[in-house]
Design a protein that fits this description.
Largest sheet: 5 strands, mixed
CATH topology: Nuclear Transport Factor 2, Chain: A
Radius of gyration: 18 Å
Number of domains: 1
Order of helices and strands: HHHEHEEEE
Number of strands: 5
Strand content: 25-35%
C-alpha cells in the first residue's frame, strides 16, 4: 500500500524542465530585459508577455502597463540609462538576473536581482530586489 501511494505521488510531481527549456527561458528573459531597459522599446519587449503578467514589486501595477510606464520614464528622463546583466541563473520555470543598473553615466547605480517566471515561452510573473550601490563598502568585495 505504501509503495502504491509513493508511486502515485511520484506521477503527480511535475517533471523538472529539461536543459533546453531552461536555456530557452534564459534567452527569452535576457532578450526581454535588453529590449525593455536598454533599447527602451516597450513594443518589442511586450511580445514576451504571457496572457497575464503578475507584478510583485509593490510600487508597480500588475500587467504590462507597469513596464510601459518604466520604459517611458527611462526614454524621457534617463535616455542614457544602462542595465548590465552580470549573471543569469535559471531553474525550472524561473530565471534570475543579477544586474548593475546605472541611470546616468558616472553614477554608482543600483544592484538589482530580478526574478521572472516563464510559462509556455512567455513571461508571466516578476519579483525584484533593488539596492543602491554605496559609495563605501565595509569590505573589499564588489556587489557584482
Amino acid at each position: 500500500m505504501r509503495r502504491a501511494l509513493l508511486a502515485a505521488f511520484a506521477v503527480t510531481i511535475a517533471m523538472p524542465a529539461c536543459a533546453a527549456d531552461i536555456e530557452a527561458n534564459k534567452k527569452i528573459v535576457v532578450d526581454f530585459y535588453d529590449k525593455a531597459l536598454n533599447q527602451k522599446d516597450f513594443e518589442a519587449a511586450a511580445r514576451y508577455f504571457g496572457p497575464r503578467y503578475i507584478q510583485h514589486n509593490p510600487n508597480v501595477p500588475n500587467g504590462p502597463d507597469g513596464l510601459k510606464g518604466l520604459v517611458t520614464l527611462l526614454k524621457e528622463k534617463f535616455p542614457n540609462s544602462r542595465s548590465e546583466i552580470k549573471r543569469v541563473i535559471a531553474e525550472g520555470d524561473l530565471v534570475m538576473l543579477h544586474v548593475h543598473a546605472v541611470r546616468e553615466p558616472g553614477q554608482r547605480g543600483t544592484a538589482i536581482v530580478d526574478i521572472f517566471r516563464v510559462e509556455d515561452g512567455k513571461i508571466v510573473e516578476h519579483w525584484d530586489v533593488i539596492q543602491p550601490v554605496p559609495e563605501k563598502a565595509a569590505n573589499e568585495n564588489t556587489m557584482f
